[in-house]
């Protein structure tokens, strides 16, 4: 497992307060279904819970004192596998441990998967943890895994950020308003 941290302190000559921290935690696992079609991918869904739990623990520890405001996930399947293998590993079962450690994270989690060789670029889309319509938090993280995944592997990636884009100013629902909406009773 590995972790990548990006800290951005300014953009367009304007200092960030607070700085933007983006983090990716990456796990590379063996693909048990290489080279053949398998109808039932539920074993991947089942095992993803423990993988997600370990990745979530490491991600939150590495994130430091920042609060998580956005997230995204993705996967790269080695050339002997299918894109669907990564999707089976990235379901709600995988993401639940992240949501539990983050707290108040009901929003859909953007994702990207593909089949590719080691050293391929992947862009992981990110959105606010509270509501997918918070425009300031539409962002992403670009990663190149130099030696992964091998043809019989799957690289799983989960990204976190502590805020929206630097200098975000296109309007729409704010993160604070989306947080307040979470705390309002649904029924009067």
SSE diagram, text form:
Layout: E1 2-11, E2 14-30, H1 42-63, E3 70-77, H2 83-89, H3 92-102, E4 110-115, E5 121-128, E6 139-144, E7 153-161, H4 175-183
Parallel strand pairs: 3-4
Antiparallel strand pairs: 1-2, 2-7, 3-5, 3-7, 5-6
Helix pairs in contact: 1-3
Number of domains: 1
- As residue ranges, the low-confidence spans are none
CATH architecture tag: 2-Layer Sandwich
Shape, per Cα inertia axes: globular
What would you say this structure looks like, in words?
The protein is an alpha+beta fold. It has one domain: 60s Ribosomal Protein L30, Chain: A, CATH 3.30.1330.110. Helices cover 26% and strands 34% of the residues. The chain contains four helices and seven strands. Strands 1, 2, 3, 4, 5, 6 and 7 form a seven-stranded mixed sheet that branches. A hairpin with a 2-residue loop joins β1 and β2 (14-30). α1 (42-63) runs parallel beside α3 (92-102). The longest helix has 22 residues, at 42-63. The relative contact order is 0.23.
Can you give keywords for this protein?
60s Ribosomal Protein L30, Chain: A, 188 residues
Q: Quick recap of the structure?
A:
With 188 residues, this protein is an alpha+beta fold. The protein has helices at 42-63, 83-89, 92-102, 175-183; strands at 2-11, 14-30, 70-77, 110-115, 121-128, 139-144, 153-161.
